[in-house]
Design goal:
Alpha-Beta Plaits; DNA polymerase, domain 1; 14 helices; 4-stranded antiparallel beta sheet; 361 residues; alpha+beta; 5-stranded mixed beta sheet
């Protein structure tokens, strides 16, 4: 018996933080709104979290240094990040999505996948359902979203970004390759500037060119990620829409007021992060196995380094001991440091280890 083709939605809220702020204060409508750090007349620290489409016309983009955003748009409205407000609105949107889906997987605060395979029979009714979702979000929260509809998560994600803002893009199973082929390879999640520069050297600038390139060659260049690239380019993605479950990691980041070459300050900051993460682990009764260090230098080049312990542990000292090993790789780097972050992952509760063993007894 043939399996029914899946129908997956990717819902992406349009410039979410800025849109929530505008909804809260309608006088901001039509103005370039930038949410992030204080620009301090062009000398501010931190980055742009998000911005309105009016700000984007000035060249402002998410992740851009706030000082650069100020130079491009000095007359913009700069607002601090109000995470409790955005999380509250995000939770309300999740409830709307749950009323329209069999399964929902939140991806951050402003986007989600929903599986509607059992809710609709074909793409015509999928479109009707998507319009209902968009209307419900707009009526209840006054916000717009863009939705991509496709047979899998990867294509749905790319489709939701195809027409923004307030877009709706449908890619049926027999249209996947036609839709993907002309798009730049950068539309695939994980293909940033560095990866794209490598791809260009091999003449692989579009998704179609990636799809037609031998999978083995991509694997030789990029390892497992190369196989992932080839599969996405060919519209292959069997990953399920996963309901929210146990946390996969705990993490913290800190941007220094000024780029620093004071390694003691860096170490103290990481020590504080380690203590805070340990507190979270203790409160939620988790063990960890993997520690990840994130470091961003003054020129914004960013590195992440991870190390897994031999077994799961709740040892507080092991976090910092691992961090010091990972930090050692950058000891000889003369650049000042802008940001450091720390993550503990591969989490489990102590009882889970027992359960796994018992399965084999």
């Amino acid at each position: 018996m043939a399996t029914k083709p899946r129908i997956i939605f990717h819902i992406d809220m349009d410039s979410f933080y800025a849109s929530v702020e505008i909804q809260l204060n309608p006088s901001l409508k039509g103005k370039p709104v930038i949410v992030g750090a204080d620009p301090k007349a062009g000398t501010g620290r931190g980055v742009v979290s998000t911005c309105s489409y009016e700000a984007r016309r000035y060249g402002v983009r998410s992740g851009m240094p706030i000082s650069k955003a100020y130079k491009l748009c000095p007359n913009g409205v700069y607002l601090p990040v109000n995470m409790p407000l955005y999380e509250k609105v995000s939770d309300k949107i999740e409830q709307i999505l749950k009323r329209h889906a069999n399964k929902i997987e939140r991806v951050g605060i402003d986007e989600a996948f929903i599986d509607v395979t059992e809710k609709v029979k074909e793409y015509v009714s999928a479109k009707e359902l998507a319009l209902k979702v968009k209307d419900a979000i707009y009526i209840q929260e006054g916000l717009t979203c863009s939705i991509g509809i496709a047979p899998n998560k990867s294509v749905a994600k790319i489709a939701s970004d195809f027409r923004k803002p307030d877009g709706l893009t449908i890619v049926e199973s027999n249209q996947v390759r036609e839709f993907l082929d002309p798009l730049p390879a950068t539309k695939i999640i994980g293909v940033g500037k560095k990866t794209y520069s490598v791809l260009k050297r091999f003449g692989l600038e579009t998704i179609g060119q990636l799809a037609r390139h031998p999978k083995e060659d991509l694997a030789q260049i990029f390892g497992k990620f190369g196989i992932h690239l080839w599969e996405v380019a060919n519209g292959i993605d069997d990953s399920e829409v996963q309901e929210a479950g146990e946390p996969k990691s705990f993490s913290l980041e800190h941007t220094f007021e000024k780029d620093t070459d004071d390694r003691n300050l860096v170490l103290k900051t990481l020590q504080l992060q380690a203590e805070n993460l340990y507190r979270q682990l203790t409160e939620m009764q988790y063990q960890y196995r993997t520690v990840t260090l994130k470091i961003r230098f003054e020129d914004f080049e960013t590195f992440t380094r991870s190390r897994s312990l031999q077994s799961h542990t709740h040892d507080k000292e092991a976090i910092m001991a691992t961090v010091k090993i990972l930090l050692g790789e950058f000891e000889s780097d003369p650049r000042k440091i802008r940001l450091v972050g720390l993550k503990v992952s591969d989490l489990r509760k102590p009882s889970q280890g027992v359960e796994r063993i018992e399965k084999w007894l």
